[in-house]
């Protein structure tokens, strides 16, 4: 507990934005810190997939991912600067990300495009669900942060739709329906294709 208190002293300024109680501003920043980790993780994971996709749809998937990465990196910057604005030091180091994240590293290396698409669909599921939870939590305290997260979630959902279009048939069924892991989704996606 002592360590946590001293860490809080290092990272928390003696202010937050006007009109918010200091503890509420810092609580919002704490919620945002996990969103910062999630989006930092996402942009690295998307780049990893951009480099590791192979197969006939290579160029389409490879090129589709870069604009998503650019947008996610922009969202990372907005979140980090909102944390700082609220009076807390944003944690942007790889060590902090790995130490504090609650999810596993992306599990695919070189793999067929459809396998990466299916696995990334799972990644987006987690990030979007957690962003929605953060909207709910921060909305009670800070509508400005809620607004930022709401806009970002709309973008993330659109990016996921791009991926899902590769996994959807004409009847509107997702080939990965029911999958709960990246590798499981990848196998289901690949099996459906052949
Ligand atoms: Fe590239």
Give the tally of β-strands: 2
Q: Could you say which structural class the secondary elements and strand pairing correspond to?
A: mainly alpha
The residue fraction in helices comes out at over 70%
Q: How do the strands line up in the largest sheet?
A: 1-2
Low-confidence runs:
none
- SS strand fraction: under 5%
Q: Quickly count the helices.
A: 7
Backbone CA Rg? 18 Å
Q: Biggest sheet, open or closed, and with what strands and sense?
A: 2 strands, parallel
Order of helices and strands: HHEHHEHHH
Hetero groups bound? fe (ii) ion
Q: Mean pLDDT, nearest integer?
A: 94
Termini Cα gap? 54 Å
General form: elongated
Give a structural overview.
With 194 residues, this protein is mainly alpha-helical. Helix content is 72%, strand content 2%. It contains 7 helices and 2 strands. A two-stranded parallel sheet has the order 1-2. Helix 2 (22-52) runs antiparallel to helix 3, helix 3 (58-85) runs antiparallel to helix 6 (143-167) and helix 5 runs antiparallel to helix 6 (143-167). The longest helix is centred in the N-terminal third of the chain and has 31 residues, at 22-52. The protein is elongated, with a radius of gyration of 18 Å. The termini are far apart. It binds fe (ii) ion.
């Amino acid at each position: 507990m002592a360590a946590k208190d001293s860490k809080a002293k290092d990272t928390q300024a003696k202010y937050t934005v006007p009109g918010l109680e200091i503890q509420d501003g810092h609580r919002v920043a704490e919620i945002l810190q996990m969103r910062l980790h999630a989006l930092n993780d996402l942009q690295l994971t998307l780049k990893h997939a951009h480099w590791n996709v192979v197969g006939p749809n290579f160029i389409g998937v490879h090129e589709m991912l870069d604009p998503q990465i650019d947008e996610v990196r922009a969202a990372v910057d907005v979140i980090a600067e909102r944390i700082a604005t609220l009076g807390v030091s944003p944690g942007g180091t790889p060590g902090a990300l790995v130490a504090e994240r609650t999810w596993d590293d992306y599990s695919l290396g070189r793999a067929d495009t459809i396998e990466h698409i299916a696995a990334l669909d799972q990644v987006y599921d987690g990030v979007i669900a957690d962003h929605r939870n953060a909207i709910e939590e921060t909305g009670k305290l800070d509508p400005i942060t809620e607004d930022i997260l709401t806009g970002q979630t709309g973008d993330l959902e659109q990016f996921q739709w791009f991926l899902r279009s590769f996994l959807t048939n004409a009847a509107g069924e997702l080939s990965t329906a029911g999958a709960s892991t990246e590798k499981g989704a990848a196998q289901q996606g690949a099996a459906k294709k052949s």
